[in-house]
Every structure is written in structure tokens, then in C-alpha cells.
Amino acid sequence: LVSIGNICRSPIAEAVFRKLVSDEKLEHKWRTDSAAVSDWNVGRFPDSRALSCLRNHGIETAHKARQITKEDFQTFDHILCMDESNLRDLNRKSNQVKDCKAKIELLGTYDPQKQLIIEDPYYGNEKDFETVYEQCVRCCKAFLDKYH
Hints:
Number of domains: 1
Low-confidence stretches: none
């Protein structure tokens, strides 16, 4: 799960997906992680508003931001991102990787409510983080249902 900085949207999506997988007792079938296309926030914890939003829904995460690697394209089956800018960056990076096996898509492709883009809540407020959370829940459930 990829976003630009890996401190708002992608850690929320990672934590949501990890919880869904755990609830379904499918941990043995899934390896879940999140990363950034940029190196701006490497090593930082998620935004405090993202952590607060997750905690409000009973979800904890210890994720620290990292940048996507060449190996990610070679080892993950799916790389899901949040917006078209991420998609362009990931497609460009994947073209430089031999043996890229990852299918790169927008996470919003799986949204039953057809909201394709998950907007960055960084400059918004708690309500915007809640919107991201709700989108991630819908999309991650649909994705898991498709591939489970």
C-alpha cells in the first residue's frame, strides 16, 4: 500500500488490511506492508491524526515510514496506491525493475462506492482522516474478498 509520504493514507490502509486479514485468520496467506514513493518521511511514525483515527477504531500500528524498493516490485503480488500521481510514479519505477511481478493499481479501484482516489488528508482535519479510514475499509474489504 503506497502513498507519497507513508505517514497518512498508506499506514491507515496497511493497518486496516492487516486487521481484516487477522479477523479472517488469514495471516499465513498475506504479507502486508506500506511504503512511500518519496523519501521525505523515512523512519517517521504515522501522523498523530492517523494514529488517533486508527485507535478510535481499535487498531494499533507500529509502522515507520519507508520508501518503496526495487525488491518490493519483485516480491509483492500487488502494490496498491492512493492517487494518480502515486500510480504514475510507481509505474515509472516499476519500468526500471527487472522481473517486476507486482500488479500496480489504485486501491480505490476496489471501492464499492466508486471513489477512485483516496485524497491526502495531511492538510485537512480529523474528519478527513476519518474519510480516508472509511474508504480504506471499503476498498480493503473488497480487495480481500476478491483475492481470498
